[in-house]
Automatic annotation (TrEMBL), chain A:
Residues 161-402 form the MHD domain. The keyword Membrane applies. This is MHD domain-containing protein. The keyword Transport applies. It is a peripheral membrane protein. GO terms for cellular component: clathrin adaptor complex; cytoplasmic vesicle membrane; Golgi apparatus. It is found in: Cytoplasmic vesicle membrane; Golgi apparatus. Keywords: Cytoplasmic vesicle, Golgi apparatus, Membrane, Protein transport, Transport. It comes from the Eukaryota. One of its GO terms (biological process) is vesicle-mediated transport.
Automatic annotation (TrEMBL), chain B:
Residues 227-236, 637-681, 700-728 have a biased composition (Acidic residues). The keyword Transport applies. Its main location: membrane. This is Clathrin/coatomer adaptor adaptin-like N-terminal domain-containing protein. Belongs to the adaptor complexes large subunit family.
């Protein structure tokens, strides 16, 4: 699929891109910027699709990358997921969207609130209604939000139930050494909101311990100055789902590691092959249970198969990608989950020097591992009492244990 | 189907056509049928036709002209959306014949009352420019007008157009510089990127280098600045204040909050602004935000890391505290791993090298061959950059020689070779060990390195070297070219130092090379033979050359200095496309070097101030004070906004009693002065004043920052704004009148107000707000009096 804004560029530019694609071992390895004799190809890789932008002149590459990501975000917002077949199916909407989002190579409207007013997202009900009434899902008036100084919110929002939900999601990124000591650990947190409030509410959210924040970034609706002076998030929210802020609690502060992995893996050429033995256990969880634990081990190429026994959960081994996945589930303190067994190796292959590292995934509900807490949420500017809710989740981000 | 008169059918047809266009299939033969539908009433059909037109108009110029009149009509449409989209399509149709029409349309649109249409006009300018370069002068005039625009919506696009059409006309910016700075926070993200990039260039050409005077304070930047950010900041700013142009300071200050943007492009552009224009001591502020971006998408990571890698070669201190963020995870993509390694090595210092080396050691065991190779090279770079660890590194590398992986061994051989070159002290054992490896190593690069080493230091291993040469001579024919070349070199060197044992061998090798398939080898052989065995060329006798042979071949060679290949990127603007690909991209504009002589800093002032004065002398004091609000949703038309505030304050004076229902003005109040305790602001007005006076020291504190950057005039204005509530009444009356006159021109309310509440937030209706709040206050006054009477 292609769309041109300035003069038309032949599709053959993409050949350069395909060349690179063929060379790269995995789709992740393709450089985001490719220089060809006359054009520059800037690409992003999302949900196993490439979105490629072709530029002819100097432009900040991040500008393009960020825009492409925003486009994909918008698609996901519109179609609830973004796959090849969905884009093919809704090509007209996609085209209309792209037309609204970019004008002559400069982004025009990227706020989903505005776009949704211009072009209504497709759903079955509306499709039927449109065929009956002959209406289209393209609005004929300019959304007023575009003109006001609060471009992210549409006007005239009405709900019968006024609700505001905040999800505080924290992801722990860590590298754990062979010996179990922490090499580095950081927390990356997000506050995602789902806000359904009528009118023009002006919210302010305060934290019990805002000193914890190391570095923050905000949705444009947050007033910077208020944050700098009082550490209070004061904002007029967009309608619907959005990410209010993301924060980073860096390696300077101490991060609690909620899980430990005891492991032994030896891959030897002789005899039956290698042996694997892994035990998981909780550590510093503040009394919460660890759920949805998944271990992923990318095995070396020479591994043929695994014959393992687990006392909890089940494991799969994909002989093509050599990925061993062990879905543990929740960790029970009384009976620690364990996996052990043998690994068969290709005979004659060169012995493996180093062991792979384990990627651990887990979630802990009702806990923000940094200790951050929302103090209160106040609303001004509207009369009604909204229903407020805050949810804390801790997840493993890029959590790696080296073996 | 297109000819049918049912919209449904038309729409269906258009959708199919667009499907063809999207797949890149040729659909131009349908042009006449499609163009007819440009008059369609159905907005969706219309839009799709527009899309089609833009794509094919260039190919079907004559037919495209048919549609022009429709656009001209649409340009006069009362609906601003239609006006804007008509202009958009009209300017996107790349037909030279319509240039005058587009020009006219742009001019009209630039004066349109809807900012949205003005924005579209700004977008249309570069389009027209690319179509017809001759229009430049005229376009610049329009552009100048648009740059004056105060709406955040327009400014970003105007600057974008400026960058594309006339980036050299920096004089157009002078008068707008301060406005751009103050609006910066409120412009949309994309506009911010463009504006900051433009302002970076502007700053480079207009302000002097802040780092010139304080070269001696270099060490200062090395001190730990993470104890307490704010404190240090304040201190430093005070120190810098006299040296830095106030406008320069204003620019840096207004860009700083944008580091907190969610948009990576904005963050990076602020980072490059600081990198290129800020005083050395302040650059570190951006590091934290850049580190945050590393958690973002892979593509963002890659680009940010490239920027960091380039910055880190020059400003180590900046990223040192974040060293651990650059540790590599096995799940990273290869090119990201390589970038991280690059950064790690350039960040290494005496204190941190230990941790880094330990990390590198783990990386060597990874499964990713290019990454492992890079890790070994990184060890080498660390070793040669930091003298203290050279020996440990060497030992580590030597132990890698016994690694089972061929590639690892080969890479370490190459690195060791480089390292030994830097310090040719006694490393006899290593050389001997390497010599033994010749038998096992198969990677040509490594073999060549070993041979070279042996040749270079043959006097240290007099016994082994000839032996190796003998072996190599045996296998000569089956070696790779690069190894063959090194065999020859070794042979020649040995022949010079130890002719007794090796002369024959050397001749043999040269003889072999003479008949090699590779002409390089043959050439080299001939060349070497004539230098060493000049007997062949009898005529010249034992020439001077052969006498000098020893000097030629055994000259001490300068050790290679492993350098970051990011060093040479300095010439490009950080974060630009050219910087990333390290070659000049089309249309890249070089950053001008800082002017050596201070360019007259008053030039801007002189040009700015009279202009402001002319417009409304009364505003000047007000304007500065309104900057205070600009960090919030600073209302774009500050005069109106200000007058609302006045209105409120005068209301308060009229009836400072409770007006619970007066939510309209209350709300306003909240919008504008957010420093007030909002919770208390809702109900009591009287106590509020007390609160306010209590809160004064606090608000002063907040404004301290403002004060320092807004020149001397600000101190007056701040006090002005503080006392505004009490004292502004008399002065605000005449102001109100002038202002009322001005907005009246601009605000032709397109969207009719539905309720008072909505109204307040809509800027165009500022005048309404005033009226209504006035009316309300009168009503409440009245009610209150009634109430009093009753009681």
């Amino acid at each position: 699929m292609e769309k041109h804004w300035k003069s038309v560029i032949s599709r053959s530019v993409c050949d350069y891109f395909f060349d690179h694609q063929r060379k790269a071992s995995s789709p992740e390895d393709i450089p985001p910027v490719i220089a060809t004799p006359h054009h520059y190809l800037i690409s992003v890789y999302r949900s196993s699709m490439f979105f490629v932008a072709v530029c002819t002149t100097e432009v900040a590459p991040l500008f393009v990358v960020e825009f492409l990501h925003r486009v994909v975000d918008t698609f996901e917002d519109y179609f609830s997921e973004c796959t090849e077949s969905i884009i093919k199916e809704h090509y007209v909407v996609v085209y209309e969207l792209l037309d609204e989002m970019l004008d002559n190579g400069f982004p025009l409207a990227t706020e989903s609130n505005i776009l949704k007013e211009l072009i209504k997202p497709p759903n079955i009900l509306r499709t039927i209604a449109n065929t009956v009434t002959g209406k289209s899902n393209v609005s004929s008036t300019l959304p007023s939000g575009q003109l006001s100084n609060i471009p992210w919110r549409r006007t005239g929002v009405k709900y019968t139930n006024n609700e505001a939900y905040f999800d505080m999601i924290e992801e722990v990124d860590a590298i754990i050494d062979k010996s179990g000591s922490t090499v580095c650990a950081e927390i990356q947190g997000y506050i995602d909101c789902c806000i359904k409030l009528s009118g023009m509410p002006d919210l302010s959210l305060s934290f019990v311990n805002p000193r914890l924040f190391d570095d923050v970034s905000f949705h444009p609706c947050v007033r910077f100055k208020r944050w700098e002076s009082e550490r209070v998030l004061s904002f007029i929210p967009p309608d619907g789902n959005f990410r209010l802020m993301s924060y980073h609690i860096g390696s300077q502060s101490i991060v609690a590691i909620p899980v430990y992995v005891r492991h032994s893996l030896c891959l030897r050429e002789s005899g039956s092959g290698g042996r694997l033995d892994i035990t998981l256990g909780p550590k510093q969880t503040l009394g919460r249970t660890i759920e949805n634990v998944v271990l992923e081990i990318p095995m070396p190429k020479s591994v043929l198969n695994c014959g393992l026994v687990t006392n909890q959960g089940k494991y799969t081994f994909d002989p093509v990608s050599k990925l061993l996945v062990w879905e543990v589930g929740r960790i029970d303190v009384t009976k620690l989950p364990n996996i052990r067994g043998t690994i068969s190796l290709q005979s004659g292959s060169p012995p493996v020097e180093a062991n792979p590292s384990i990627n651990v995934k887990f979630t802990i509900n009702q806990l923000a591992v940094s200790g951050l807490k929302v103090n209160r949420l106040d609303m001004y500017g509207e009369k009604y009492k909204p229903f407020k809710g805050v949810k804390y989740i801790t997840k493993a981000g890029k959590f790696q244990v080296r073996m | 189907m297109l000819d049918s008169n049912k919209d449904n059918l038309k729409l269906e047809a258009m959708k199919r056509i667009i499907g063809m266009v999207a797949k890149g299939r040729e659909a131009s033969d349908l042009f006449p049928a499609v163009v007819k539908n440009v008059v369609s009433k159905n907005i969706e059909v219309k839009k799709l036709v527009y899309v089609y037109l833009v794509r094919y108009a260039e190919e079907q110029q004559d037919l495209a002209l048919l549609s022009i009149s429709t656009f001209q009509r649409a340009l006069k449409d009362p609906n601003q959306l239609i006006r804007a989209s008509a202009l958009r399509v009209l300017s996107s149709i790349r037909v030279t014949m319509i240039v005058p029409i587009v020009m006219l349309a742009i001019k009209d649109a630039a004066a349109d009352m809807s900012p949205y249409v003005r924005k579209t006009a700004a977008h249309a300018i570069p389009k027209l420019y690319s179509l017809d370069q001759d229009q430049k002068e005229e376009l610049i005039q329009v552009l100048e007008k648009l740059l004056y625009d105060k709406t955040t919506l327009v400014v970003g696009s105007a600057v974008m157009a400026f960058e594309e059409v006339c980036p050299e006309r920096i004089d157009l910016i002078h008068k707008n510089f301060r406005k751009l700075c103050s609006l910066l926070v409120d412009v949309d993200e994309w506009g911010q990127v463009v504006i900051i990039n433009m302002l970076t260039r502007y700053a480079r050409s207009q302000f002097t280098d802040p780092n010139l005077q304080d070269v001696d304070e270099d060490e200062e930047s090395k001190r730990p600045f993470y104890e307490d950010e704010n404190e240090v900041d304040e201190e430093q700013q005070e120190k810098r204040a006299p040296t830095l142009d106030p406008d320069h300071r204003l620019l840096l200050r207004s860009a700083k909050p944008l580091l907190q943007s969610r948009n990576a492009a904005v963050v990076l552009s602020v980072a490059q602004l600081y990198h290129h224009t800020a005083p050395r001591s302040e650059v570190h502020q951006v590091a934290k935000a850049m580190i945050r971006l590393l958690r973002s998408h892979r593509e963002v990571q890659d680009i940010v890391l490239t920027s960091i890698a380039a910055t880190a070669t020059r400003r180590k201190v900046m990223f040192e505290p974040f060293l651990k963020s650059f540790f590599v995870r096995s799940s990273d993509a290869t090119h990201i791993k390589l970038l991280k390694l690059e950064i790690l090595t350039s960040l290494a210092t005496e204190s941190s090298v230990g941790i880094i080396l330990r990390e590198l050691q783990t990386y060597v065991a990874a499964h990713d061959p290019p990454f492992v190779a890079a890790a070994i090279q990184a060890i080498g770079r660390c070793a040669s950059n930091i003298k203290e660890v050279t020996d440990t590194c060497l030992n580590g590398l030597v132990s890698l020689l016994s690694n089972k992986d061929q590639a690892v061994v080969a890479e370490s051989v190459v690195v060791i070779k480089k390292l030994l070159q830097t310090q040719p002290s006694a490393h006899r054992e290593i050389i001997i060990q390497m010599a033994k490896l010749v038998d096992s190593v198969t990677v040509p690069q490594a073999r060549a390195s070993i041979l070279w080493l042996l040749g270079e230091y043959s006097e240290r291993v007099p016994k082994i070297a000839p032996d190796v040469l003998r072996k190599m001579a045996k296998t000569f024919t089956s070696e790779e070219d690069i190894v063959k070349l090194q065999v020859m070199t070794l042979a020649v060197k040995l022949c010079l130092t130890n002719p007794k044992q090796t002369k024959l061998l050397c001749q043999y090798v040269l003889q072999l090379a003479k008949y090699d398939q590779n002409y390089d080898l043959r050439d080299r052989a001939r060349f070497l033979r004539h230098i060493i065995f000049p007997a062949d060329a009898e005529s010249g006798g034992p020439t001077r050359l052969s006498k000098q042979a020893k000097k030629i071949f055994l000259a001490p060679k300068p050790a290679p200095v492993p350098e970051s290949h990011f060093k040479d990127r300095e010439q490009f603007q950080l974060g630009s496309l050219s910087h990333y690909i390290n070659t000049k991209a089309n249309g890249y504009q070089e950053l001008p070097p800082f002017p050596l002589e201070a360019p007259d800093p008053k030039a801007r002032d002189v040009e700015t101030e009279p202009q402001v004065m002319e417009q409304a002398p009364l505003f000047t004091a007000k304007k500065v004070s309104s900057k205070k609000d600009s960090k919030f949703y600073s209302d774009t038309e500050s005069p109106e906004d200000e007058s609302e505030e006045d209105e409120n304050s005068s209301d308060e004076d009229d009836d400072d009693d409770e007006e619970e229902e007066d939510s309209s003005s209350d709300k306003d109040e909240e919008e504008d002065d957010n420093e007030d305790e909002e919770s208390s602001g809702l109900e009591e007005k009287l106590p509020k004043k007390v609160v306010k006076s209590n809160a004064k020291p606090k608000s002063d504190e907040e404004e301290e920052e403002d004060e320092s950057d807004e020149d001397d005039s600000s101190s007056e204005s701040v006090s002005d704004s503080d006392s505004e509530d009490e004292s502004s009444e008399p002065s605000s009356v005449p102001k109100k009148q002038t202002r009322n006159a001005k907005p009246a021109k601009e605000s032709t309310p397109v969207v009719k107000p539905k309720s008072n509440l909505d109204l307040l937030l809509d800027l165009d209706d500022g005048v309404f707000c005033q009226l209504i709040s006035k009316v309300l206050s009168v009503i409440f006054c009245f009610q209150f009096l009634q109430h009093l009477l009753q009681s």
